[in-house]
Protein backbone atom coordinates (compact mmCIF):
# COMPACT_ATOMS: atom_id res chain seq x y z
CA UNK A 1 0.00 0.00 0.00
CA UNK A 2 1.40 3.47 -0.97
CA UNK A 3 1.85 5.90 1.88
CA UNK A 4 -0.26 9.09 1.74
CA UNK A 5 1.61 12.28 2.53
CA UNK A 6 -0.10 15.62 3.19
CA UNK A 7 1.72 18.87 2.63
CA UNK A 8 1.01 21.58 5.21
CA UNK A 9 2.02 24.32 2.87
CA UNK A 10 -0.54 26.03 0.69
CA UNK A 11 -4.25 26.50 1.20
CA UNK A 12 -5.48 25.29 4.58
CA UNK A 13 -8.87 24.55 3.07
CA UNK A 14 -7.31 22.14 0.67
CA UNK A 15 -5.49 20.51 3.56
CA UNK A 16 -8.73 20.03 5.45
CA UNK A 17 -10.37 18.70 2.31
CA UNK A 18 -7.59 16.17 1.82
CA UNK A 19 -7.69 15.13 5.48
CA UNK A 20 -11.43 14.64 5.28
CA UNK A 21 -11.06 12.40 2.21
CA UNK A 22 -8.09 10.45 3.56
CA UNK A 23 -10.10 8.07 5.81
CA UNK A 24 -12.23 6.94 2.90
CA UNK A 25 -9.18 6.42 0.72
CA UNK A 26 -7.41 4.46 3.42
CA UNK A 27 -10.57 2.50 4.18
CA UNK A 28 -10.94 1.66 0.51
CA UNK A 29 -7.37 0.47 0.30
CA UNK A 30 -7.83 -1.63 3.43
CA UNK A 31 -10.97 -3.12 1.95
CA UNK A 32 -9.10 -4.00 -1.24
CA UNK A 33 -6.34 -5.52 0.84
CA UNK A 34 -8.86 -7.69 2.70
CA UNK A 35 -10.46 -8.69 -0.58
CA UNK A 36 -7.13 -9.72 -2.07
CA UNK A 37 -6.14 -11.70 1.00
CA UNK A 38 -9.57 -13.35 1.03
CA UNK A 39 -9.05 -14.64 -2.53
CA UNK A 40 -5.97 -16.55 -1.48
CA UNK A 41 -6.61 -20.18 -0.62
CA UNK A 42 -5.77 -21.03 2.97
CA UNK A 43 -2.71 -23.18 3.49
CA UNK A 44 -3.95 -26.74 4.07
CA UNK A 45 -3.03 -28.35 7.38
CA UNK A 46 -0.21 -30.89 7.27
CA UNK A 47 -1.34 -34.47 6.64
CA UNK A 48 -1.67 -36.72 9.68
CA UNK A 49 1.31 -38.94 10.37
CA UNK A 50 1.15 -42.28 8.61
CA UNK A 51 1.50 -45.53 10.49
CA UNK A 52 4.76 -47.38 10.30
CA UNK A 53 4.72 -49.96 7.55
CA UNK A 54 5.82 -53.52 7.95
CA UNK A 55 8.80 -54.23 5.68
CA UNK A 56 7.07 -57.45 4.64
CA UNK A 57 3.97 -55.59 3.41
CA UNK A 58 3.59 -55.76 -0.37
CA UNK A 59 6.72 -57.90 -0.56
CA UNK A 60 6.67 -61.18 -2.47
CA UNK A 61 8.62 -63.82 -0.59
CA UNK A 62 8.36 -67.36 -1.83
CA UNK A 63 8.50 -70.15 0.71
CA UNK A 64 7.65 -73.80 0.16
CA UNK A 65 4.68 -75.17 2.05
CA UNK A 66 5.00 -77.92 4.65
CA UNK A 67 4.97 -81.26 2.82
CA UNK A 68 3.71 -84.62 4.10
CA UNK A 69 2.76 -83.33 7.57
CA UNK A 70 2.58 -85.61 10.60
CA UNK A 71 -0.82 -86.36 12.15
CA UNK A 72 -1.49 -87.83 15.58
CA UNK A 73 -4.50 -89.64 17.00
CA UNK A 74 -6.62 -87.69 19.46
CA UNK A 75 -5.72 -90.21 22.17
CA UNK A 76 -2.01 -89.40 21.71
CA UNK A 77 -2.28 -85.65 22.27
CA UNK A 78 -3.26 -83.45 25.16
CA UNK A 79 -4.64 -80.10 24.01
CA UNK A 80 -6.80 -77.53 25.81
CA UNK A 81 -10.35 -77.83 24.53
CA UNK A 82 -10.52 -74.13 23.64
CA UNK A 83 -7.66 -74.16 21.13
CA UNK A 84 -8.82 -73.29 17.61
CA UNK A 85 -8.42 -75.91 14.90
CA UNK A 86 -9.21 -76.09 11.20
CA UNK A 87 -11.33 -79.15 10.56
CA UNK A 88 -11.40 -80.94 7.20
CA UNK A 89 -13.07 -84.19 6.21
CA UNK A 90 -12.43 -86.07 2.98
CA UNK A 91 -14.58 -89.15 2.58
CA UNK A 92 -14.73 -90.79 5.98
CA UNK A 93 -11.43 -89.37 7.18
CA UNK A 94 -11.58 -86.33 9.51
CA UNK A 95 -8.48 -84.30 10.28
CA UNK A 96 -7.77 -81.22 12.33
CA UNK A 97 -5.00 -78.67 11.89
CA UNK A 98 -3.93 -76.72 14.97
CA UNK A 99 -4.48 -73.17 13.77
CA UNK A 100 -1.66 -71.53 15.71
CA UNK A 101 0.72 -74.12 14.21
CA UNK A 102 0.04 -72.44 10.85
CA UNK A 103 0.70 -68.87 11.99
CA UNK A 104 4.37 -68.63 10.99
CA UNK A 105 5.66 -67.61 7.57
CA UNK A 106 7.00 -71.11 6.95
CA UNK A 107 3.77 -72.85 7.98
CA UNK A 108 0.95 -70.87 6.31
CA UNK A 109 0.56 -73.64 3.71
CA UNK A 110 0.42 -77.36 4.54
CA UNK A 111 0.42 -79.79 1.61
CA UNK A 112 -0.63 -83.34 2.41
CA UNK A 113 -2.99 -86.08 1.32
CA UNK A 114 -6.06 -87.92 2.58
CA UNK A 115 -5.80 -91.56 1.48
CA UNK A 116 -4.29 -90.57 -1.86
CA UNK A 117 -6.31 -87.36 -2.28
CA UNK A 118 -4.02 -84.29 -2.31
CA UNK A 119 -5.16 -81.63 0.16
CA UNK A 120 -3.55 -78.24 0.77
CA UNK A 121 -4.63 -76.10 3.73
CA UNK A 122 -3.80 -72.38 3.72
CA UNK A 123 -4.10 -70.01 6.67
CA UNK A 124 -3.24 -66.31 7.03
CA UNK A 125 -3.01 -65.17 10.64
CA UNK A 126 -3.27 -61.47 9.68
CA UNK A 127 -6.64 -61.80 7.97
CA UNK A 128 -7.80 -65.02 9.68
CA UNK A 129 -8.51 -66.41 6.22
CA UNK A 130 -8.61 -70.17 5.68
CA UNK A 131 -8.91 -71.94 2.34
CA UNK A 132 -8.54 -75.64 1.65
CA UNK A 133 -7.81 -77.04 -1.81
CA UNK A 134 -7.57 -80.31 -3.68
CA UNK A 135 -6.92 -81.26 -7.27
CA UNK A 136 -9.55 -82.89 -9.41
CA UNK A 137 -8.50 -86.36 -10.40
CA UNK A 138 -6.12 -86.82 -7.48
CA UNK A 139 -2.44 -87.08 -8.29
CA UNK A 140 0.69 -86.14 -6.33
CA UNK A 141 0.90 -83.55 -3.58
CA UNK A 142 -0.03 -80.04 -4.63
CA UNK A 143 3.08 -77.85 -4.71
CA UNK A 144 1.39 -74.78 -3.23
CA UNK A 145 3.73 -72.18 -1.76
CA UNK A 146 3.51 -69.07 0.38
CA UNK A 147 4.11 -66.03 -1.82
CA UNK A 148 4.43 -63.22 0.73
CA UNK A 149 1.93 -60.50 1.58
CA UNK A 150 0.42 -57.87 -0.70
CA UNK A 151 -2.68 -55.66 -0.89
CA UNK A 152 -3.68 -56.55 2.66
CA UNK A 153 -3.71 -60.31 2.17
CA UNK A 154 -1.43 -63.29 1.83
CA UNK A 155 -0.20 -64.45 -1.54
CA UNK A 156 0.13 -68.07 -2.61
CA UNK A 157 2.16 -69.37 -5.53
CA UNK A 158 1.20 -72.25 -7.79
CA UNK A 159 3.08 -73.33 -10.91
CA UNK A 160 5.07 -70.09 -10.90
CA UNK A 161 1.99 -67.83 -10.72
CA UNK A 162 1.12 -65.60 -7.75
CA UNK A 163 -2.47 -65.43 -6.50
CA UNK A 164 -4.07 -63.57 -3.59
CA UNK A 165 -5.23 -66.16 -1.08
CA UNK A 166 -8.85 -65.13 -1.70
CA UNK A 167 -8.53 -65.32 -5.50
CA UNK A 168 -11.16 -67.32 -7.36
CA UNK A 169 -8.71 -67.74 -10.24
CA UNK A 170 -6.69 -70.43 -8.46
CA UNK A 171 -6.95 -73.53 -10.69
CA UNK A 172 -7.77 -75.83 -7.78
CA UNK A 173 -10.94 -77.29 -6.33
CA UNK A 174 -11.94 -75.86 -2.96
CA UNK A 175 -12.91 -78.12 -0.07
CA UNK A 176 -15.23 -77.33 2.81
CA UNK A 177 -13.70 -76.71 6.21
CA UNK A 178 -14.65 -75.38 9.63
CA UNK A 179 -12.85 -73.24 12.20
CA UNK A 180 -13.85 -74.53 15.59
CA UNK A 181 -12.39 -75.53 18.94
CA UNK A 182 -10.52 -78.75 19.51
CA UNK A 183 -13.10 -79.78 22.10
CA UNK A 184 -16.01 -79.36 19.69
CA UNK A 185 -14.22 -81.05 16.78
CA UNK A 186 -13.09 -84.02 18.86
CA UNK A 187 -16.59 -84.40 20.27
CA UNK A 188 -18.03 -84.62 16.77
CA UNK A 189 -15.19 -86.71 15.30
CA UNK A 190 -13.64 -88.93 18.02
CA UNK A 191 -11.55 -90.76 15.42
CA UNK A 192 -9.92 -87.57 14.18
CA UNK A 193 -6.20 -87.06 13.81
CA UNK A 194 -4.51 -83.70 14.27
CA UNK A 195 -1.56 -81.78 12.84
CA UNK A 196 0.50 -80.08 15.57
CA UNK A 197 3.39 -78.63 13.57
CA UNK A 198 5.97 -76.93 15.78
CA UNK A 199 3.84 -77.67 18.86
CA UNK A 200 4.29 -81.42 18.60
CA UNK A 201 6.51 -81.76 21.66
CA UNK A 202 4.29 -79.46 23.71
CA UNK A 203 1.01 -81.27 23.12
CA UNK A 204 1.89 -84.91 22.57
CA UNK A 205 1.22 -87.06 25.61
CA UNK A 206 4.58 -88.78 25.20
CA UNK A 207 6.97 -86.88 22.90
CA UNK A 208 9.43 -89.78 23.05
CA UNK A 209 7.06 -91.98 21.05
CA UNK A 210 8.10 -92.74 17.50
CA UNK A 211 6.40 -91.09 14.56
CA UNK A 212 3.21 -92.73 13.30
CA UNK A 213 4.09 -95.63 11.04
CA UNK A 214 3.49 -95.33 7.33
CA UNK A 215 3.85 -91.55 7.32
CA UNK A 216 7.06 -90.16 5.81
CA UNK A 217 8.80 -87.37 7.71
CA UNK A 218 7.73 -83.87 6.77
CA UNK A 219 10.07 -82.05 4.42
CA UNK A 220 11.34 -78.79 5.94
CA UNK A 221 10.13 -75.76 3.99
CA UNK A 222 12.72 -73.74 2.12
CA UNK A 223 12.70 -70.02 1.40
CA UNK A 224 13.35 -68.66 -2.08
CA UNK A 225 13.62 -64.95 -2.93
CA UNK A 226 10.90 -63.90 -5.36
CA UNK A 227 11.93 -63.52 -8.98
CA UNK A 228 9.93 -62.18 -11.85
CA UNK A 229 8.68 -64.95 -14.10
Shape: globular
Query: What order do the strands of the largest sheet run in, or round the barrel if closed?
Result: 11-10-9-1-15
Structural class estimated from helices and strands: alpha+beta
Tally the structural domains: 2
| Helical residues, percent | 10-25%
| Strand segment tally | 15
Question: How many strands, which pairing sense, and closed or not: the largest β-sheet?
Answer: 5 strands, antiparallel
Distance between the termini: 67 Å
List the helices and strands in order: HEEEEEEEEEEEEEHEHE
Topology:
Blueprint: H1 12-39, E1 59-64, E2 66-67, E3 72-73, E4 84-90, E5 93-98, E6 109-114, E7 117-124, E8 129-134, E9 145-150, E10 153-158, E11 161-164, E12 173-175, E13 178-181, H2 182-188, E14 193-195, H3 200-203, E15 223-225
Parallel strand pairs: 2-6, 5-14
Antiparallel strand pairs: 1-9, 1-15, 3-14, 4-5, 4-13, 6-7, 7-8, 8-12, 9-10, 10-11
Features:
disordered C terminus, 17% helix, globular, 229 residues, 3 helices, alpha+beta, five-stranded antiparallel beta sheet
Descriptive report:
- This protein has 2 domains: 31 residues; 167 residues, no CATH class.
- 17% of the residues lie in helices and 31% in strands.
- It is built from 3 helices and 15 strands.
- It has a 5-stranded antiparallel sheet with strand order 11-10-9-1-15, with no helix packed on it.
- A hairpin with a 2-residue loop joins strand 9 and strand 10.
- The longest helix is centred in the first third of the chain and has 28 residues.
- The radius of gyration is 36 Å and the shape is globular.
- The two termini are 67 Å apart.
- The N terminus and C terminus are likely disordered.
Amino acid sequence: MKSISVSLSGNRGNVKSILRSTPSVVGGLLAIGCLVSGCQKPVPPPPPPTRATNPMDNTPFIMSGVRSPQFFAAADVQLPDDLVVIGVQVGEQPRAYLQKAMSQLNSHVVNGEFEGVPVSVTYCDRTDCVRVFTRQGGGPLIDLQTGGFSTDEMLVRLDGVMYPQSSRELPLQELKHVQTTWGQWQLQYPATTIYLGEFEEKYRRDPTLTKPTGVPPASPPSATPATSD
